[in-house]
TrEMBL record:
It comes from Pseudonocardia kunmingensis. This is Energy-coupling factor transport system ATP-binding protein. CDD domains: ABC_cobalt_CbiO_domain1. Keywords: ATP-binding, Cell membrane, Membrane, Nucleotide-binding, Translocase, Transport. The lineage of its organism: Bacteria, Bacillati, Actinomycetota, Actinomycetes, Pseudonocardiales. Residues 7-246, 298-538 form the ABC transporter domain. One of its GO terms (molecular function) is ATPase-coupled transmembrane transporter activity. One of its GO terms (cellular component) is ATP-binding cassette (ABC) transporter complex. It comes from the Bacteria. The keyword Disulfide bond does not apply. Its main location: membrane. It is found in: Cell membrane.
Length: 573
């Protein structure tokens, strides 16, 4: 295969930055190859894609660029304009909303082709092909503003595909997709690559890269730290993050409890290696902790919500959420999760007369959300949007947190220490004076979470708290939320990261078509495989692996190591 992308000694430094965003980067990508780019937040991944797309140096003039970057045989720095590069190179940004410019999905898919003068019959054919490939057929006439975050991501990727690029650059294209939706998009990308398109994809979901990428490039602090096939890179000591089944197998091998000389990248490989070595294990389940009764802090009765246009987002939800619970709401894109969450703090109200949402603050009479103004409810129920840019409006991180505290009447002497402590907790220590506009999306997400937690609402509702975070930062955020919960507050998150849900939540609410399909502890809900299949939710890798080898429902790494190392030893006796 011919070389499509050749990068040699590429370095980029933004004006005023202390270090290079990219530091002498070298790699190649071939025609039809899927090249995965991974690394921690701030490693330079998005900057690399901007260079490959010609945004740097043709558009972002505050970035100094040196080295050689050749795409399709031409040096990008010598191209006439960004438009000349875009004729062959498609870029999907991390935030899909900044690329959506049309009223409906159908119009969005056709718009770029119309601008290029593509004949109408060709436009119609490509729209139909893209809709089928990326699962948008039923959404073609839906308003783009009414789409879920994951549906918006599918639309933007499909619109880029419609332009028939020879190179596709994708910046976290599945970050807001449910697990099955992620697999659907990755399979579509594989189909695109099979047609000769070179795909460079930045992704934190390392288990997907392990399965679908041909090669991986690992970045850290702007430099390439490793290049190789998924097996070469992820099984080596240089790997920063690994698929959960691979991390488990490595640990069990250290304990002489992994039965194969090979290490697995996928659940299928792990099952084959385990059963081929020690046979099927005897199931046994750890004792479930007895439930502790909790007073209800939120109660929903017959909550229905129909949006203008007739879309029924909620269809009679009945829920009670207890004080001090850590609740995760899961479900496929468009199942009603965000609509439900927005009812919890009065941002939305039931559209049926009998529907009610009741808040029961500590030490105060309960009230219905329809009886209070939004700012009054927000004192008790805080909310963090899926897109942090919808609620960040100050010029520094400190001001963002100070604003809410002053509105609550917190004494000035307390504000500084509370702001500093909260920023430290979310990994933003020393960033008090940083302008949020100069931060990555993942950092802005943590800032939005901090701005809510600093006000100490009794209930914190957070829509996709780990979007844009690398695995270490995602765990940091969930650790912060778990500590907040242990302090007596209630935490409600929406998440598509089933491994984090399994490891942190003590209750899962699974949504489907606007109603509650399952509600219970993670161990119970993740055992409902047939039920979860109807929600586009797949259990975490470790849970799926344990289920297929007859082990108990495994929720995290330590639990899996303890269960399987003992089982393996028993099988050998």
């Amino acid at each position: 295969m011919s070389t499509t992308i050749a990068v040699r000694n590429l370095s980029v430094r933004y004006r005023g930055a202390e270090r290079r965003a990219l530091d002498e980067v070298d790699f190649e990508a071939a025609e039809g190859e899927i090249l995965g780019v991974l690394g921690p937040t701030g490693a330079g991944k998005s900057t690399l894609l901007k260079c490959l797309a010609g945004v740097i140096p043709h558009f972002e003039h505050d970035a100094r660029y040196k080295g050689s970057l050749s795409v399709l045989g031409r040096e990008l720095a010598e191209s006439d304009s960004l438009a000349s590069v875009a004729a062959d190179v498609g870029l999907v940004l991390q935030d899909p909303e900044v690329q959506l410019v049309n009223t409906t999905v159908r119009e969005e898919l056709a718009w770029g082709m119309e601008n290029r003068g593509v004949p109408v019959p060709v436009i119609l054919d490509r729209v139909d092909r893209a809709a089928e490939l990326f699962g948008l057929t039923d959404l073609l006439d839906r308003f783009t503003h009414a789409l879920s975050g994951g549906e918006k991501q599918r639309t933007v990727v499909a619109a880029t595909f419609c332009l028939d690029p020879r190179v596709m650059l994708l910046d976290e294209p599945t970050s807001e997709l449910d697990p099955a939706g992620t697999d659907d998009v990755m399979r579509a990308i594989r189909t695109v690559a099979a047609q000769g398109v070179t795909v460079v994809i930045v992704e934190h979901k390392v288990e997907e890269l392990a399965e679908y990428a041909d090669r991986l490039v690992q970045l850290d602090h702007g430099a390439v730290t490793a290049v190789g096939t998924p097996r070469e890179l992820l099984t080596s000591p240089r790997a920063v993050h690994r698929p959960p089944v691979l991390a488990l197998a490595r640990r069990l091998r250290e304990l002489q409890a992994w039965p194969s000389t090979e290490l697995p990248l996928t659940v299928d490989e792990a099952v084959a290696q385990w059963t081929g070595g020690v046979g099927r294990v005897v199931p046994h389940a750890p004792a479930a902790p007895s439930a502790v009764p909790r007073p209800d802090v939120l109660t929903l009765r017959d909550v229905r919500h129909v949006y203008p246009g007739g879309v029924a987002a909620l269809t009679g939800v009945e829920l009670a959420i207890g004080r001090g619970e850590f609740v995760a709401i899961i479900g496929k894109n468009g199942s009603g999760k965000t609509t439900l969450a927005k009812h919890l703090n009065g941002m939305l109200h039931p559209t049926n007369r009998d529907g009610t949402v009741t808040v029961a603050p500590a030490g105060a009479p309960p009230f219905r959300t329809g009886e209070r103004r939004l700012h009054q409810i927000a004192r008790h129920v805080g909310y963090v949007f899926q897109n942090p840019d919808r609620q960040i409006f100050h010029d520094s991180c400190a001001e963002e947190l100070e604003f809410g505290l002053r509105n609550l009447g917190v004494p000035e002497a307390e504000i500084g220490p509370r702001v500093g402590e909260t920023l430290r907790a979310v990994g933003l220590a020393g960033r008090e004076r940083t302008n949020p506009a100069h931060m990555s999306r993942g950092e802005r997400q943590r800032l939005a979470i901090a701005a809510t937690l600093v006000m100490e609402p009794e209930v914190a509702v957070i829509d996709e708290p780990t979007t844009g975070q690398d695995p270490a930062e995602a765990r940091l955020i969930l650790d912060v939320l778990a500590a907040y919960c242990r302090a007596g507050h209630t935490v409600v998150i929406i998440s598509h990261d089933m491994a984090l849900v399994a490891g942190y939540a003590d209750r899962i609410i699974a949504m489907r078509h606007g109603s509650v399909l399952a509600d219970g502890p993670p161990r119970e809900v993740f055992a409902m495989v047939d039920v979860l299949d109807t929600t586009n939710i797949r259990p975490p890798q470790l849970t799926a692996f344990g289920s297929r080898i007859g082990a108990p429902v495994l929720l995290d790494h330590d639990e899996a190591v303890a269960a399987l190392s003992g089982l393996a030893a028993n099988e050998r006796c």
